[in-house]
C-alpha cells in the first residue's frame, strides 16, 4: 500500500500554505505492521529535508535523535517502520509563515483522517506539536462530537491518558526544526512519550 496513491487533496483550498510543497509519503508499506502513527506538523520547503528523502535529511536527523533519546537505535526511515511506526504530517503543504490558520487544519484533517484509516491496527497516535493536536481534534469532533485532547499547555496535559476509538493519543512536542536540538526539556518529554507509545502497542 502506498499512502501517496490513496490520500489526495483535490481542490487545494488553503490560502496560507505553499502548495508546491504538497507531500504525502510516497512509500510502499504493509499497513498491518503499523501500530504507531507519529504525526508531525508540515512538510519542509525543500523535499530533500523530508522524512522519506534519500540520505540524511534534516527531518530524519532530528527524528532519529528523538528515537535514540527514547532508547531506540534508528538510522533511517526503514528502521522506524520496522518498529511499527509510520510518520506523516498533519498539514500536507508547506508553511508560509510561523503558524497555520485553523481553517487549514480543519481542511487537512480530512486528509489526515483518510491516511489514518489506511492503518487498521493502530494502537497509538503521537501528536507532535500544537498543529498535530489541533488537527486531530478536528477529526475527533467530526466523528465523536468532541475533541480528544483538551486545551492547555502541553507539558501540563501530556501526562493524562486520552483515547480516540481504541487508540491512545499522546500530545507531545514537535520533533523537527532547529529548536529541537537545543530545547533539552522538550527533548526529554518527547523521548518519554515515544517510549510510552511504543510500549503501549
Radius of gyration: 15 Å
The CATH class is Alpha Beta
How would you name the CATH homologous superfamily? Answer: Uracil-DNA glycosylase-like domain
**Helix-strand pattern, N to C?**
HEEHHEEHEHHEEH
Which fold name corresponds to the CATH topology?
Uracil-DNA Glycosylase, subunit E
Helix share, percent: 25-40%
Structural class: alpha/beta
**Mind telling me which CATH architecture this is?**
3-Layer(aba) Sandwich
Strand fraction equals 5-15%
Whole-number mean pLDDT? 94
Report on this model:
The two termini are 22 Å apart. This protein has seven helices and seven strands. It has a five-stranded mixed sheet with strand order 3-2-5-7-6, with helices on both faces. The chain has a two-stranded antiparallel ribbon with strand order 1-4. Helix 2 packs across helix 7 and helix 4 crosses helix 5. The chain has a single domain, classed as Uracil-DNA glycosylase-like domain (Uracil-DNA Glycosylase, subunit E). The protein is an alpha/beta fold. It is globular. The protein is 37% helix and 14% strand. A hairpin with a 2-residue loop joins strand 6 and strand 7. The longest helix is centred in the last third of the chain and has 17 residues.
Amino acid at each position: 500500500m502506498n499512502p501517496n496513491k490513496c490520500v489526495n487533496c483535490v481542490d487545494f483550498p488553503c490560502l496560507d500554505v505553499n502548495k508546491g510543497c504538497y507531500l504525502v509519503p510516497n512509500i510502499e508499506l504493509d499497513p498491518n505492521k503499523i501500530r504507531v502513527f507519529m504525526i508531525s506538523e508540515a512538510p519542509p520547503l525543500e523535499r530533500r529535508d523530508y522524512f522519506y528523502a534519500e540520505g540524511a535529511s534534516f527531518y530524519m536527523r532530528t527524528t532519529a535523535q528523538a528515537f535514540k533519546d527514547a532508547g531506540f537505535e534508528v538510522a533511517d526511515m526503514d528502521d522506524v517502520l520496522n518498529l511499527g511506526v509510520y510518520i506523516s504530517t498533519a498539514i500536507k503543504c508547506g508553511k508560509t509563515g510561523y503558524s497555520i490558520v485553523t481553517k487549514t487544519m480543519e481542511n487537512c484533517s480530512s486528509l489526515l483522517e483518510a491516511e489514518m484509516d489506511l492503518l487498521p491496527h493502530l494502537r497509538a497516535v503521537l501528536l507532535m506539536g500544537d498543529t498535530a493536536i489541533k488537527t486531530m481534534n478536528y477529526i475527533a469532533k467530526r466523528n465523536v462530537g468532541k475533541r480528544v485532547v483538551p486545551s492547555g499547555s502541553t507539558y501540563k496535559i501530556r501526562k493524562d491518558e486520552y483515547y480516540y476509538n481504541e487508540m491512545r493519543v499522546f500530545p507531545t512536542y514537535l520533533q523537527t526544526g532547529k529548536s529541537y536540538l537545543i530545547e533539552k526539556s522538550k527533548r526529554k518529554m518527547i523521548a518519554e512519550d515515544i517510549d510510552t507509545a511504543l510500549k503501549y502497542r
